[in-house]
Amino acid sequence: MEWLEASTENCPVQRTLDIVGEKWTLLILRDAAAGVRRFDDFHRHIGLSEAVLSDRLRKLTAAGILTTVPYREPGSRSRNAYRLTRKGWDLWPVLVALRQWGDTYAPEPDGPVLDIRHEECGAPVRVVVECSAENVPLTPRDVSARPGPGARRRD
Predict the structure, then answer these.
(1) pLDDT tens digits for 104-134?
(2) Do 66 and 97 meet the contact criterion of CB atoms below 8 Å apart?
(3) pLDDT tens per residue, range 13-48
(4) Fewest C-beta atoms under 10 Å: which of 10, 29, 76, 99?
């Protein structure tokens, strides 16, 4: 079966985008990975409405990407802080790849807004696609993509 004959109903890219493929959701994940935990901090830093932020945080929590941890400031009511789960942290390479693409193809005139470096040696971090057996970097010319065992024919 060729790719164009395969149904895309069960595509993992589509399923992922159904959960995290919205601009505000990715910005929330970016900030959560950078250490933002509180609703007011997300709201102030990203600049989206409280209603949209509440909706996106609820969806990310329901999907198991964020978890809530109660906290209470003295004299205030109990609130929730938001933390990335392991499932959420597994999206970190996607965020780094988006940053890397943006720095290359939509650069900021004054330089990168976010500088991610390896703590040990100080070198910049980059995302690389590699062979799982040989651990060598790959380009699109080095791979073949075809329908997998779960693919179904298009109707």
Answers:
(1) 999 999 988 889 999 999 999 999 999 999 9
(2) no
(3) 999 999 999 999 999 999 999 999 999 999 999 999
(4) 76
Strand partners, 69: 81
**Tokens found for residue 71:** 């906290």
Cβ–Cβ under 8 Å, residues 53 and 39: yes
pLDDT at 147 exceeding the cut of 90 = no
Q: Report the b/e string of 55-72 with b at 16+ CB within 10 A.
A: ebbebbbeeebbbeeeee
The torsion angles phi and psi of 62, rounded to 5 degrees, stand at: -65, -30
Token pair 């790849």: residue: 97
CB-based contact 54:46 (threshold 8 Å): no
Residue-wise burial string across 78-116, b where 16 or more C-beta atoms lie within 10 A, e elsewhere: eebebebeeebeebbeebbeebbeebeeeeeeeeeeeee
* Cα–Cα distances in angstroms (integers) from residue 83 to residues 61, 87, 88, 111, 154, in the given order: 9, 11, 9, 29, 40
pTM (predicted TM-score):
0.87
